[in-house]
Amino acid sequence: MPKVLLNGKFVEEQDAKISPMDRGFLFGDGIYEVIPCYAQKPVGLKLHLARMNNGLSEIGIRYRADLDEWQDNISQLLKQFDSPDMGIYIHISRGADIKRFHAYPDNISPTVFAYAFNIAPSQILDREKARSFSVTSAQDLRWQRCHIKSTSLLGNVMHFQQGQDAGTDEVILYNDKKEITEAAACNVFIVKDDVIYTPPLDNQKLPGITRRIILDALEKAGGFDVREQIVPLSALNDCDELWITSSSKEIGPVTKIDGRVLGDGKPGPMWLAAQQAYNAYKFLC
To answer: Which entry of 149, 205, 266, 282 is annotated as an active-site residue?
Structure first.
């Protein structure tokens, strides 16, 4: 059985013990990251660690992820597997106190946990064979600090289950102004008349690392008209393409929205061009 990392030590999974008084368990008081790795190479490691450190700072957990240390940790987790396509999950909670109390306690050490798991291969650059996704839409009922990648994910979980119950892969969320925010576990891009739109970042949206890499990759490749601006829910009715993006999905082309087939039911040509640009850039950041 592969080993996991817990508080600086690599241990057998069944021997990894965390106190029930840990605030990650009691309050969801922590930050996490999921880092995709292809051919043993992490994608966007510096960006993931920077976002994690920002989140830790925002909620006052006294831990700072060191790039060299985590490069070594990830390498040791990955070398246990023959599979070229793996994800790394990192979870840092505030730690365990001697009592359950809402206020942040002093003088406790963060709990640091990480493990490796299999993920789907990188997208096939073929409109006939690429993985595609179906989505439904729903009003965003989560808390108002979605820019923090907190382990308190019940709101996201409930929305994601809403999509599962509807027989879809994801849920596109919108606020009370009928503006698209993001999906339960992804960021969102829309294509209309060869223009790529994505909602601007604010407290309603997680600053996705894959989203960031895509924007940088498209700018570096040139020839793409990309606009970060408010996207109304009504845009789902007449868009040419819709993408959901995340570390595990890369650029996920959507072919069905609320039961309606989008376009010809295949990933679109702009998706193919964008995924090619992403592939060319993803290990450079």
So the answer is: 149
